[in-house]
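Hi V.,

Quick status before I head out on leave. The structure for the redesign project is tokenized and pasted below; the design run finished overnight.
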């Protein structure tokens, strides 16, 4: 069980890293002021929501594995 939790944390962190990198494409310093405030739509919204969901699940798994049961 403990090994499965650690593997899940590794997989979630890798997928979350990829999602963050995908979100940062098209951004950067050279953005114009008109594109700073816009509504997320389509795939951008899906990536954003998936990143939040994976972040919460990563946090929960990290808290679970830090319990004294897994020492």
């Amino acid at each position: 069980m403990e090994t499965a939790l650690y593997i899940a944390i590794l997989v979630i962190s890798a997928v979350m890293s990829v999602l963050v990198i995908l979100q940062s494409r098209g951004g950067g310093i050279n953005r114009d002021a008109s594109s700073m405030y816009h509504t997320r739509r389509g795939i951008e919204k899906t990536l954003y929501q998936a990143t939040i969901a994976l972040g919460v699940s990563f946090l929960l798994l990290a808290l679970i594995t830090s319990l004294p049961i897994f020492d």
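Above is the designed sequence. The longest helix spans residues 2-24.

G. will cover questions while I'm gone.

Best,
W.
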